Amino acid sequence: FVNCIKWEKFLDFRSVAVDMAQYIAALCLFFVAAVNSILIEEYGAKPNSYDLHTARVNSEAMVNALVAANSSLDRVVTISGGNEYYMLGVYVSDIYDVTIQISGKVIFSDYIPAWDPDTTAQFWFVECHGITVQGQGIVDGQGLKWWRGAYLGLSYRPFLVYFYHSTDIIIKDAFFLNSPRFSIYFKDCADIVVHDITIFIDSSVDRGHGRDSVTYPLNTDGIDIAATNVTIYNCNITNYDDAIVPKPCHSNWKYCICASDIIAYNNNITYSTGLTIGSVPPNVHGNCIRNVTFRDTTMYRPLKAIYIKTNPGEEGSGMIENILYENIVIREALWWTIYIGPQQQNEPNDGSNGTGCNFLFPFIPICPTQPLVTIRNIYFRNVFAVDTVPIFEGPGIILCDPGNPCENIVFDNVQNVMYEGDIDDILAALPIPAPGIVFPTPYRSDDWEFEYLSSQVNGKNVGFVDPEVCFDESCWWDGEAKE
Known about the structure:
5 helices
């Protein structure tokens, strides 16, 4: 009975009739309910108390309950409904065939000095196999202070849920709130199903410190997948970085030598920087992403909607191939509908120039391409973008290296319709800051040529730029150089 829940994954991957899958899943729930579960209170957990001592006690209780379940007939660990459990990090390894039933709420402490800088994640699983995380409860990462810290030079932030060197994983039904960094991350993993979950990054919390940014809260990816044989469906994701993103694996890894055979469908995405591939830098062991399908998905006000990105590197190779976007509906995209090219990233206070690709490319045409990463066989089928906000010019960018050009990019019934109303109606309603119109085409002369002096991002110019970077309608360019 314990392992019958694995039939859900078996059926999903093999496209067995939905009614039969649901029937067997219902039987599994019945049998799992019949098995005694382990309450974390049995190992000393204290609900509804919010001091650091309690956080440490509850984390230890969670670990001990999982270890006990690993050697018991009672292989379900329950976080009780109606209660809140304040915790620091939970780390376990070598756990097999255990279900975590989240019926209550887990709240991770946001007192940053209490966290070990080497803590990779708040829930951290290593070499764990046959793990199911389920329930109608909430896992709250309390990310606000971590997001602020990123702008103030904090060098580490934990993921909310992280699986490393793990296989046969199911995550379903739960609510993941305000992760400090990525919400869910699978690295060197295989055989995964994620469905009917909610990931929500609450941008209404007080930002403070005057640190507004289009990508704030930084690095709050939804589901990152450096894994093979993955299915993700019926999820609702609201965030401000990549929503669902396969990341590369390579030949020196254990369970995933190429991120591959990944399908994500029937998902609803709000904001985000898109349904993403990468970023992929070259690697001496051959970074690889292939055979990925995104389909039957709606996106509302994404910054970028479809985003395929390389990253800098001077040694090794990388591959992005056989990627399909099908039946995608995009409403009110804010930046680019489709972007294929070098990643646009520049972390605050890290002392670097980021990935080197200017956020205002092509208006500031600084964006070095990557000759060591091959991009080929990219298919867009039935992709409909409506009311794309004309902050930038046109629907997208494809920027490949002249020495290793992209191959076989196919557009089949792809449509983009720009928003014709007052864009302030959209910009004023956004929970994040966004620029005004940048170099609108109707106000540009036909003989306009690129002519730039600035190498900085975000429109903070040294000297003057022709045309001047414009973040509101007061500086619409009239075809004459600014003085």
